[in-house]
Amino acid sequence: MPFLDEKHTSTDLKALSPAGLEEWVIEELGEPKWRARQILRWMYTRKAVDSFESMLNLPVSLRDALATSARMERLTVQALFTARDQTVKALMKLPSGRNVESVLIPYLDDHGNPIRLTVCVSSQVGCAMGCTFCATGKMGFQENLTCGQIVDQVTYMRKVASDRFDRDISNVVYMGMGEPLLNYKALLASLEILTHPEACGLSPRRITVSTVGLARRIRDLANDAPRVNLAVSLHAPTESKRASIMPISRNALTGLKALEPAMQYHTSTTGRPLTFEYCLFSGFNDSIEDAGALAKVCQNVRAKVNLIMYNSVPGTAFERTSETQLDKFMRHLSKRGVTVTVRRSRGADIAAACGQLANQSLT
């Protein structure tokens, strides 16, 4: 069914930042700005409502005005997949008709109790970066998400976390579909909503933005959101190797040489180390020589390394490294003074693991 014409004349309140919502309420409705905080609570707390008439502490006249001049576009869940390790992936439909995926990743103790519940959100449908090992990159770029559509993923997964684990989420990572820094305005607005005390109320220290390494935007993020964690998808320790798997490194303006000073600016401005995400591919970037080159990069930038065991993607020639090689690689980094952790695959059996998000079919 085609969208109604009113879609083009009314304002989607979920595409506005908290500051933007305040401005709209004052200018369009002639209401005091504290009304915006009430609306914000109704849209984004765990009791998020679907209609203006459900905003019961607003006057009827204001609810009627909202119904006439505004809308709240939201994602609709098409399907839910549960992995053997209890990872949950949601396939969600946008108002455009396109789909996007979000993942709830539980980290459990030996008794099956959640230590941490992380929501992995998407910021775009598809991705323009074209990394050769990534399923999302094979989709190409299709659509930017609004700030509300990003936050809707968190809102929904909070309900899943409550239903399945009887507790709230602990972390949010922008590591799903898309390059967050290419949807920068919506990224900042979504961060503002996630951390706003009248909305989601999450600590910025519990939020991580992952990027392939857009140097200018990394500097901007240091200034605009200094309390949020930054992760850089490195995946190769030299310019030539990185360029062979990540097109962004083929340009002098976006390669490692341009990226290093931007990362140094970020760590010095925020006072916090960043994380290098490093997916280990058998026979490509997992040698001791590669580990030594990676350690040199870490000497130039205040960073820790998160080693990722690769998850197979159809149509790629890459295979994950062996446990033996992983151990050697990790030990060499540790000897060089690098803080290193290992991220194990979660949700691979439902194509919910790192690099696998590509809008899995419902059939």
Count of DSSP helices?
A: 11
Order of helices and strands: EHHHEEEEEEHEHEHEHEHHEHEHE
Overall pLDDT level: 91
Roughly how much helix do the residues carry, as a percent range? Answer: 25-40%
The end-to-end distance, rounded to whole angstroms, is 22 Å
Summarize the structure.
The protein has 363 residues and is α/β, with parallel strands linked by helices. It is built from 11 helices and 14 strands.
Task: Tell me what you see in this structure.
It is a single chain. The protein is globular, with a radius of gyration of 21 Å. It has helices at 18-29, 34-44, 60-69, 135-139, 147-165, 184-195, 215-224, 239-245, 256-270, 288-300, 323-335, and strands at residues 11-12, 70-71, 76-82, 88-93, 99-108, 114-120, 124-126, 141-144, 171-174, 207-211, 229-233, 274-280, 303-309, 340-343. 35% of the residues lie in helices and 20% in strands. Strand 5 (99-108) and strand 6 form a beta hairpin. The chain has a ten-stranded mixed beta sheet. Helix 1 (18-29) packs across helix 2 and helix 5 crosses helix 6 (184-195). The longest helix has 19 residues, at 147-165. It contains eleven helices and 14 strands. It is of the alpha/beta class.
